[in-house]
Structure formats: C-alpha cells, structure tokens
Amino acid sequence: MVEAEPRSIAIVGGGVAGLQALHSLLQLPRVEKIVLFEKSDTIGGVWRENYFGYGAQVKRDQYSFPELGPAGLDLYPTGAQLKAHCHAYCETFGLWPYIRLSTDVQHLTRRAGPSGFRVAWKRASDAESEEEDFDFVVMAVGNFSKPFIPELNHSHFMGRILHSSELVDPEMLQNHHVVVVGYGKSALDCFILASKFASSATLVARRPAWILPQRFLGIPLEYLASTRWFAHVVFPPYYNASRLRRWIGVFLWPLQALLWWILVPILWFHFRLPRAMWPSHSLAWQLWHGHSVSICDPAPLKEALRRGARMLRGQLLGLTGTGCIIGTESAASSGGEAPVLLTADVVVFATGYQESWSKLFDEETLKALDPHGEGPELYKLILPDLPGLAFLGRILTTCDIVTSFVQAQWLQALLAHQIPRPAPAVRQPTQKSYREWRRSFAPVVGHTMVAVPRVFDYLDELMDDLQVWPSGRDRFLGLFQPLTAQTLLAAMARARATASPVQGRRVVPVA
A GO molecular-function term, please (predicted)? Predict the structure, then answer.
C-alpha cells in the first residue's frame, strides 16, 4: 500500500537535523500543519549550551548549513557562533512560526486506523499534557540527548560533581583540585581548561582512544580524513560496492595494513602523550566500530602537560569525602596493590550522552523499531519498518550538518512521491546487507550509523535516489576535495542545471 502524502508532520528535536527537516518538509505542497517540538527554551541542540569554550572540531566549511554558508563563523566555529548560526537559519527561512519551544514530547502512540502517531506533549508552563494527531513524525533527537554520569556512591563526597555540559564558567574550577573523567573531545577540552584555572588537574580515562591533530605533518586533516581517495585507499568498500571494487579491496588489504602501521606512530608523535595513554586498540578499529574520534590542536594539550596537569589510565571506582579512588592497570596487574587515591573537590564527568528516543514508544513499537537490540533498524539509515516515521541525524560523521542536509532532501522527495517508498522486498535485503557489512567490523554497537570514512558512499546512495548525478569534472575533483557544505551544494546545483527532463533527473530545491 502506498502511503498518502502527509498533511500533518511533527518533528521532535530542535538541533541542526530537526531544523533542516523543518526547512525541507515545509516545501511539501500538501502539508497543512507542521510543528517542531523542542524541549528547551531555544533551538540549537548540542550547540544551545555546553561547557565553557565548546565548539566544532572541524572547520566552518564542513560544519555550516549548506543553504546559509559559513559567513560569521570562525575557522573552527565556537559553540556560541553555531547557536547564532542556527538562529540565523530560522530567521532566513522563516522557521520560527512552526517551532514550539519549552515543549516536551512525552509519548508517541501509533494510531489504530490511518498511519501516523498521536503525540502527547507538555509545555513547561502547563500542569497537564495535551495530545495531537500527526500523519508523519520525524525523530531528530540525534545522538547527544541526555547527559550521562555513571552511577557511583558519592554521598560522602564533599566536593562538586558536574557533567561536562554544566561546566559553563571557568571560575567553577578556580583554585580547586579537579579530576576529569573521560577521553573524548569534551574531556580533553575540560582538562585543558582545568590546567589553566585549577590548583591541580588530572584526566582519568578507562580506555584511552586515538586523537587526530588538526594538521597531519603540516597537511590540513580534512585533505586526508574527509576525501574520497583516502577512504578508498585505507578502508574496505561500502556494503553496496560492486564485485570489482570488493576484489580491489581484497588486493589492497596488505597496503592498508602497511599504511596504518606507518600512520599510527606519526599520529602519536603529534601529541607525545604519556606512554600509558597509548590506546589498546588500533585507530582503524576505533573508526570502524562506530566510535567518534576527537580532533584537536596538539599545542594546548602539550601545554597543559607542561603546566603540571597529568593523565592517568584507570577506572573511577568511587568517591571518598575528599577525593577519587582510581583503579589503575598497574594496580590490577600487581596482585592486589591498593588503588590510587586522588585528591579532588571537583569531578567533571565528560562521559557523553544517552539516547532518549526509546522512552517515547511503547514496548511493542520499540521491539518493531529495534529488533536486534542495536538501535533502530533503518532503511538508508532513515526509515524504520513502521509507516509514518523517520529518523534524521543519527549518523556520526565529521560533517554531520552536511549529512543531515542530504537526509532531509531525500526524505522530502520520498514524502512527495518523487522517489518510491521501498517495498519490503527491496527494503529488507538492503537493511540485511548493511547490517551484515557493519557487523563484519563492528559486532556490537549502540547506534545504527554509517562509519565515518564511508560518508561519501552513503551520500552517493541518497543522491542517486534523488537522481542527482555529478558531472565527470565533479567526480574527478571529488576524489581530492574535502567534503564541505559548499562543494556539495555547488555539485548539486550543477547537476540541477544540466538535468534532462526526458531522463527524469531531479534535484530537490536547496534554497
């Protein structure tokens, strides 16, 4: 059965993916009502508010709205600039009238008759919740929803416990003994901040991970990590690759192994961290198992270590009245040596976020969405098997804002019936092939996402459905150019200008 074009659409989440979905779906001619629900008092998602000095770890060309451009952003945009960028996006495209701020979506119930959902929502100022029916729901809550702090007995701790997102003022660290728990981008930023203001600063990481420098041997990182040629040379083919490309991948495997063996020591040399922080897994493993890789400038990190801040490999076991109990690898391997006790009166947990989408559905719907316990099972990483529902922005890449832009264009075309909704005979084999491909390098994951280096193949997959085919010139230059918002937009515009109505080519409007 072909779903009718929806007349009413609800979007959950006011981050970049939600705003892009709103902008795209407003262009559907038959939509009579569209509402974006945002629990907070303003839009921006992770850029709304976070720790002091937070910002993007990639350049503005890779992290700006394609339709808006990077004007007003620093080379590496600050969080405040990206928040303003989101507001400018809403102003430019007239999105504010469709956004309900301070409105928490509490539950989504599948309607018995027509496809769609009944949305239960509640304003922060109201005592009672309300219900509203929508033909289609877009989940755009992303991967950074609910701050996560491990459960520890801290009843005797006399200091202060913070999640990294709460560290909004460096005065909170002034003249304190600070322990930062974690090893991602936020942990490193908070550690560097603490080294400047605190009496002592210690970073504790249970599983140290690989960090990438902004420049590799003087070359901007995007010319390596965000280019097609690099992905083709050092990573296995995507799940839908041709048999020829798969065979080429087999023959390239010895070269790939050699390249990783050469690259990793050079990478480590950029930071020259304590030997104890050498990761126990390879960089290739980290990338292909869906773990994010932090990108930062090595200089502030090395300066923090010169100021006397230190890094410790170990696990936070508990808190005393005046410090942290750390179980280190050396303690565990020395036959029962006592754990390390660190003096601390501020503990910052840079331990990431938990998903929040699953709490909105009943058990039966949740089982249909997540049959394998690995996150929602999604066709093209957008559509679940349930009608009337889509997910946007669940993919972690170095250019999330560009990825969700193409996702939003694809979803708009699907709902307008300009590309066919896949039948089960098409959808299920595709989902199975993707799942088997992902499991071949990441047997256990917490999210359904595309591996970072293969984002080009994923975007090609969506743009092929949109019948946006780059010219030979764009294909050649695309091998060496980093993926940026403007290069993508320019390639789409050129494809639009040369499209043949006879061939049925179509480019979704982008402005």
Answer: monooxygenase activity
DSSP SS3 for 469:
coil
DSSP states along 356-425: -SGGGS-HHHHHHH-TTSSS---BTTTB-SSTTEEE-S----TTHHHHHHHHHHHHHHHHTTSSPPPPHH
Q: Residue 337 — very low, low, confident or very high, per pLDDT cuts 50/70/90?
A: low
Residue 495 scores a pLDDT above 70: no
Q: How confident is the model at residue 168 (pLDDT cuts 50, 70, 90)?
A: very high
- Please name the amino acid found at residue 497: A
- Phi first, then psi, for residue 391 (nearest 5°) are -120, 135
Q: Are 131 and 113 in contact (CB under 8 A)?
A: no
Pairing of strands 8-12, 33-37: parallel
* Measured distance CA(4)–CA(190) in Å, rounded: 49
Buried b (16+ CB within 10 A) or exposed e, 371-406: eeebbbbbbbbbbbbbebbbbbbbbbbbbbbbbbbb
Share of the chain above pLDDT 90, in %: 48
In the numeric block, the tokens 């072909």 are attached to 2
> Is the pTM of the predicted complex or chain greater than 0.85?
yes
Between 124 and 249, the more confident residue is: 124
pLDDT beyond 60 at 450: no
The backbone torsions φ and ψ at residue 198, rounded to the nearest 5 degrees and listed phi first, read: -85, 160
Determine the average pLDDT of the residues in 272-290. Answer: 81
Q: Find, among 460, 403, 401, 473, the residue nearest to 47 by Cα.
A: 401
Please name which of 93, 108, 86, 91 lies closest in space to residue 11, comparing C-alpha atoms.
108
Q: What is the pLDDT confidence band of residue 288, given thresholds at 50, 70 and 90?
A: low
Q: Please state, in angstroms and rounded to a whole number, the distance separating the CA atoms of residues 81 and 53.
A: 11
**Single-letter amino acid code for the residue at 340:** V
Domains in the chain (CATH in brackets) are 8-145+355-497 (3.50.50.60), 147-352 (3.50.50.60)
pLDDT at 444 over 60: no
pLDDT of residue 64: 93
Residue-level length of the chain:
511
Q: By the 8 A CB rule, do 198 and 176 touch?
A: yes
Cβ contacts of 392 within 8 Å, gap of 6 or more: 17, 18, 20, 21, 138, 139, 140, 382, 404, 407, 408, 411
